[in-house]
């Protein structure tokens, strides 16, 4: 939907999330029918019936977590937290600190672009596992103890639900307002080019990207010394969206990727590992039998698998954060060793470092 706000998307300074957050909060504050439509949406998905909710923005918690939108009932109890997301990663406090804030019969609602839902889902699941949070999952809905929920939905769906309620109740001024917000979110969702900010031009960005390529080289060096990996005849390759190192361990070929397209579309990590059989004439292949084995390994090691541009399955490798480079490298090497041992259970690799 074309809108004036969407038309000037590229000229708007500051956070797109903040604009969307303030916009949807403005509408929820002014319209009982908009609030009721959101309550009905939540009831249909998680079965919790909320009383009327007062929505406020940018509320800071005890651990300095800053909420986009906080929904508080008439007793002053926080029942709903709404987080507006476009392409930014989860913060350190999300979702763990937010879940700690919430009591029983509450919900944390993430609203993001439709194309962001899968990668956000994977990121949330990774955070839940890291924090030992027990949950059950039904597609994009997570249920935890005390009837706490996480829901992931997209901007188009939630805004159209609110718009329908405004139309039914003839709130024409707010219909015009939400059309502006819908148009803005559509442009942000579909734009392949995000406006350049001053911070994006910092040399630290280039240094960071280059360091990811350097880390791959150092991982390969360590795999050669620890797991007798073979790189003879395999050349490092610069790809359109990154950098790849190839090596073989026993009868398997490994491609270690710094892949920005997979990072953008699938999971919050720049590092990916593809495993194939090595056959004669240096040909590599990943038949269905191997793909099924990789799926088993992913479940056992709690890794995520995605299909790349060639429809080969590859592991998303989440690096350790806030640690020195050696720790990052050692962790990824150990993970590749675990994968290799699962591929060769009868002849597990013998690491030189032991």
Topology overview:
Layout lengths: L3 H4 L8 H15 L1 H15 L7 E7 L5 E7 L5 E7 L11 H6 L4 E7 L4 H14 L5 E3 L2 E4 L3 E7 H14 L3 H19 L12 H25 L9 E3 L2 E8 L2 E8 H6 L5 E9 L3 E3 L2 H14 L2 E4 L5 E5 L7 H19 L11
Parallel strand pairs: 3-4, 4-7
Antiparallel strand pairs: 1-2, 2-3, 5-6, 6-7, 8-9, 9-10, 10-11, 11-12, 11-14, 13-14
Helix pairs in contact: 2-3, 2-7, 3-6, 6-7, 8-11, 10-11
Summarize the structure.
Helix content is 43%, strand content 23%. It is an alpha+beta fold and 354 residues long.
Principal-axis shape equals elongated
Tally of individual domains: 2
Helical region count? 11
Low-pLDDT stretches are: 6-11, 350-354
Count of distinct strands: 14
User: Percent of residues in helical segments?
Assistant: 40-55%
Strand order of the largest sheet: 1-2-3-4-7-6-5
Q: Which sheet architecture does the biggest sheet show?
A: 7 strands, mixed
Distance between the termini: 61 Å
Keywords:
disordered C terminus; 354 residues; alpha+beta; 11 helices; elongated
What does this structure look like?
The chain has two domains: 4-190, no CATH class; 203-344. It is built from eleven helices and 14 strands. The chain has helices at residues 4-7, 16-30, 32-46, 96-101, 117-130, 155-168, 172-190, 203-227, 260-265, 288-301, 325-343, and strands spanning 54-60, 66-72, 78-84, 106-112, 136-138, 141-144, 148-154, 237-239, 242-249, 252-259, 271-279, 283-285, 304-307, 313-317. Strand 2 and strand 3 form a beta hairpin. The longest helix has 25 residues, at 203-227. The protein is elongated and about 70 Å long.
């Amino acid at each position: 939907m074309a809108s004036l706000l969407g038309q000037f998307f590229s000229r708007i300074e500051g956070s797109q999330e903040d604009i969307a957050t303030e916009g949807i909060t403005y509408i929820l504050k002014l319209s009982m029918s908009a609030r009721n439509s959101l309550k009905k949406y939540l009831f249909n998905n998680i079965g919790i019936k909320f009383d009327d909710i007062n929505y406020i923005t940018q509320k800071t918690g005890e651990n300095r977590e800053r909420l986009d939108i906080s929904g508080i009932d008439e007793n002053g109890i926080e029942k709903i937290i709404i987080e507006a997301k476009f392409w930014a990663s989860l913060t350190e406090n999300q979702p763990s600190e937010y879940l700690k804030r919430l009591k029983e019969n509450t919900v944390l609602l993430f609203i993001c672009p439709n194309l962001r839902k899968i990668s956000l889902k994977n990121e949330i699941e990774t955070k839940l596992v890291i924090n030992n949070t027990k949950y059950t999952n039904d597609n994009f809905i997570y249920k935890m103890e005390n009837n706490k929920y996480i829901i992931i939905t997209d901007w188009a769906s939630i805004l159209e639900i609110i718009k329908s309620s405004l139309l039914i109740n003839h709130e024409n001024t707010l219909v015009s307002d939400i059309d502006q917000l819908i148009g803005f979110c559509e442009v942000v969702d579909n734009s392949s080019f995000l406006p350049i900010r001053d911070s994006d031009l910092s040399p630290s960005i280039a240094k960071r990207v280059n360091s990811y390529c350097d880390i791959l080289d150092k991982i390969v060096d360590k795999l050669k010394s620890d797991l007798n990996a073979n790189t003879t005849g395999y050349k490092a390759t610069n790809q359109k969206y990154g950098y790849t190192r190839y090596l073989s361990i026993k009868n398997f070929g490994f491609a270690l990727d710094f892949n920005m397209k997979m990072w953008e579309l699938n999971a919050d990590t720049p590092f990916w590992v593809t495993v194939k059989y090595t056959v004669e004439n240096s040909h590599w292949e990943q038949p269905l039998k191997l793909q099924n084995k990789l799926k088993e390994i992913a479940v056992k090691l709690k890794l995520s698998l995605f299909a790349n541009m060639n429809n080969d399955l590859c592991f998303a490798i989440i690096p350790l954060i806030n640690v020195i480079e050696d720790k990052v490298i050692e962790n990824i090497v150990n993970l590749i060793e675990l994968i290799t041992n699962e591929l060769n259970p009868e002849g597990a690799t013998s690491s030189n470092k032991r």
